[in-house]
Amino acid sequence: MHFRLSFPIMGFTYLINQEVALGVWFFNLIYLAARGMFNVMGVSSAENLGIYGAAEPIFKNFGTGAFLTFVLMGFWMARSHLKDVFGKAFGVRKADDSEEIVSYRTAVFGLILGLVIMLAWLVMSGMGFLTAALFVFFALIFFIGLTRIIAEAGIATMISPSIGSGQVVSSLGSSAVGSEGMTALGMTYVYSSDIRTFPMSAMAQSLKIGDWIKSRGRGGMFLAVVLAVFIGYFVSSWLVLKLAYGYGGINLNTWFYVNGPQYPYNWPVSHILHPAGPSASGWAARGMGAALMGLLMFVRYRFLWWPFHPLGFAVGSVLWIDHLWFSIFLVWLVKGMILKYGGVRMFRQGRPFFLGLILGQYSAAVIWFLIDLAAGHTGNIVFWI
Predict the structure, then answer these.
(1) Residues 274-291: tens digit of each pLDDT
(2) Which residues contact 27 (CB under 8 A, 6 or more apart)?
(3) CB–CB of 146/158 below 8 Å?
(4) Short-list 4, 3, 11, CA closest to 360
(5) Is residue 166 a contact partner of residue 113, using CB atoms and an 8 Å limit?
(6) Taking all residues of the chain, what is their mean pLDDT, rounded to a whole number?
(7) Which H, E and C letters describe the chain, residue by residue?
(8) In angstroms, rounded to a whole number, what is the distance separating the alpha carbons of residues 231 and 208?
(9) In the chain, what is the greatest distance between 2 CA atoms, to the nearest angstrom?
(10) pLDDT of 30 strictly over 70
């Protein structure tokens, strides 16, 4: 058990829903107990699903099942709105989209065109159509699930329990994917694996900012988003190349310039050398995770007294939560006491202190960065999560 204090996470946790905070740290401890029980009983899986997400393959698959139910049930609950969206796009329904960043027609046909381009790109890169379609499905499940968690729960930093490429191999088997397909799957690590930040979550935050500033019309906000994407892409690419060639990437951050860039090649090689069929245990774990998530969501929406938010079950197995659960628990406990004995007024009075924890951590990081810059020192890491 990691008893780690992360001051920014403590500050952000003060602002999120109490049931979300309870669900995150409670289910993390449940997963921890399950891992300990499995270790004692000798229950394990030899699947190689990549290094991201949960620590063990069983819980990567389990968390994937939870994400599947979480996202697909969300679509089901939004079915009426989605009917209006697609109906307006194809001209068979009337719906007001004047407040949206783009029209429903643009959104729907952009989605269709984007899916066609992605599938064609993946097939041309070496994947079979089934492999490509399944990869896009899992990748979008994780992207959409994380975006909803970030937008609904307000959790400041999060990754998914698994990644699309690993779930494709678990579902179909590396022998069915083939060596060419495995090589192409390895290349997807660049944009679909270490998704600590990704455009969909940033887009959700941009739409919220647009509501706050009450931007008029679609053009301005959409143009700002497009410019941010292109400027961020080109500036970051240029800066990475400049640093790598100017100082030698091997002399800089080990993960970003050494270990991380090797993994998209090492992972498919291990599967090409040791091909295997689909994992029965992986399918079973996904099914169990999906069923339990469905049960938790049913209880959540049917019984008002149920205190555990199902979001915690979806992300409780993630390695990062192993490090953050204690910070979340402490603030959940303190905030609960504040609300119980001091009410909303005391909660508002305590907010500047917890916001100060966030500002203090980042201010310290900036100060030490400037000191290192002046002293010519490198390698210090003030803030991780």
Answers:
(1) 999 999 999 999 999 999
(2) 308, 312, 313, 316
(3) yes
(4) 11
(5) no
(6) 89
(7) CCCCCCHHHHHHHCCCCHHHHHHHHHHHHHHHHHHHHHHHHCCCCCCCCCCCCECCHHHHHHHHHHHHHHHHHHHHHCHHHHHHHHHHHCCCCCCCCCCCCCCHHHHHHHHHHHHHHHHHHHHHHCCCHHHHHHHHHHHHHHHHHHHHHHHHHCCCCCCCCCCHHHHHHHHHCHHHHHHHHHHHHHHCHHHHCCCCCCHHHHHHHHHHHHHHHCCCCCHHHHHHHHHHHHHHHHHHHHHHHHHHHHHHHHHCCHHHHHHHHHHHHHHHHHHHHCCCCCCHHHHHHHHHHHHHHHHHHHHHHHCCCCCCCHHHHHHCCEHHHHHHHHHHHHHHHHHHHHHHHCHHHHHHHHHHHHHHHHHHHHHHHHHHHHHHHHHCCCCCCCCCC
(8) 21
(9) 66
(10) yes
- Which residues contact residue 197 at a Cβ distance below 8 angstroms, ignoring those fewer than 6 apart? none
pLDDT tens-digit map of 258-268: 888 899 999 99
Q: Look up tokens 């940033």; give the residue.
A: 202
Dist CA 70 CA 74 (whole Å):
6
Q: The pTM is what?
A: 0.90
Structural tokens at position 119: 């599938």
CA distances from 307 to 296, 301, 344 (A): 11, 11, 20
| Per-residue tokens: 207 | 């739409």
Q: Are 139 and 52 in contact (CB under 8 A)?
A: no
Residues with Cβ within 8 Å of 249's Cβ and at least 6 positions away in sequence, in order, are 243, 256, 257, 258
- The residue with tokens 């599967």 is 271
- Higher-confidence residue of 287 and 190: namely 287
Domain ranges of the chain: 7-375
Q: What is the pLDDT of residues 301-338, one digit of tens each?
A: 889 889 999 999 999 998 888 988 999 999 999 999 99
How many CA atoms, within 13 angstroms, populate the side-chain half-sphere of residue 325?
Answer: 23
